[in-house]
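Moderator note: this is an archived Q&A kept for reference. The question asked for a predicted structure of one protein chain; the sequence and the answer are reproduced below.
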Amino acid sequence: MKPIDLPLLILLPVLLAASCPSTNCSILRTENFTTEPNWIGMGNRYSPGCREVIQDFGYSDTDYCGGQVGEVGGQISRSVTPAYYATPIEEKTLDDTLDASGRIVLVKDMDGGCFIGWFNHRRQGWRPFSFLGFRLDGRNVYLCYTTRTWRAQGLGTEVSLVPGKPTAWKIHYDPAQGNETGSVTLTIEGKRTTLRLLPGHREDGAIFDRFGIFNLQEPGGFQRLYIDDLALDGLVLNFSTDPGWEGCSNRASFRDCLLRGTQDFGYSETNFSGCQEGEIGGLIWRSERPAFYADEVGVLTLEDRLVASGVMTLVQASSDSGFLVGWFDPKDLGWPPSSFLGFVMEGPSRIGHQFRLIYHTPQGLGGESQDNPILFPNSTVYRWNIEYDPSTRIFSGRIEPGGEVFLTVDPDGNATFALFGMLNIPVGGHQATAYLDDLAYTVSISELPITIALPTSLLLAVFLASPISLPDRRTIAHGEQVF
């Protein structure tokens, strides 16, 4: 509850009577998180445990691929922590022709995974920023790419590697193929798979400055594999000697506590999104286990005018990750939540993360905005606002940079909201790190502590003696305004 000065508390019934046109009365609460707000949290600081991770790959004086001694590979473990072994290359883009070939052998797989191809050493993730090549997910091979705007596409090859069997592979990217959108072709075990870039993805571009192996950056097991006889854009490497490639955490062992389903969001003494220390957010994982961090807002419904605004930044966000911000009822946090009005930050990997308005009611009614602005997980600070008008049932939102979206709420739908804040998406997926600050949001007047009963004559006397005007919207407490 927010503190109210006593003289103002005495006048509050009079002010509200003049300011609230009906029995529904709400106020705008602001929060800049300079101190901990003591919001309600459920499952937002959750750890499923830890595990030991070993990365041990790079140059190896072995011959699992056959032929002479010398190859690159070893034990590669899944982990959110990046690890790679690669050769620096002259910067390439999706406007360049790319070619590579070689042999690969999967020695052992224990729910492991890795990527082989062109990538950017500054950032990978799931799916990796600026990547073109193939992915091993266990024994299965997938052809895939991701642009520098995190739009991605992949295709299964129907090839499953046989442990211990060396296999030839060849990959070719032609920017002029696929109706000028570009296409990439992988031939492995004699099977040819072609993936055309989706419209607009080549124009998004990618920045490749390395070629090599990096781990699949999500929790899981490990695999041991090796590659040899590599031909890269005309340069042939048989690894008879150590090539001196660049390694990043490829010879490391550590205790990994960022496992699938880890939640670590709430109040934070950081300033990723605001101008001063103090904000809310952190690591939010799409997981079947619901989690939220939110403020009590009294009782609000779709008969109330609801507005909210703030700033937001996405520090990182893997494909298939996301979260919700808005008003909700904590009694039903399924997907979609049965009582929710706000926005969701997520989207299919071929499109990218979106700022998308969404609502749902217990009657089974709901909807989402279309043609939504795309957001980038590169620490850009976004300013956003949302507004719902019960008289027209129009729900509107704007995010800058980005644009504006609209959604019509079904007139037969209603919902009751008790909290406002951040929620995870309670279905399986991946993780994002995001922060919110400088929030303003509608709460019910029932949240104010009106507990003093005074005679009407005394209230009137105080009111008449006080030089207070009654505008349509008036600050009645620090950070709260009457609608």
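Archived answer notes: The chain has two domains: 6-48+260-482, 51-256.
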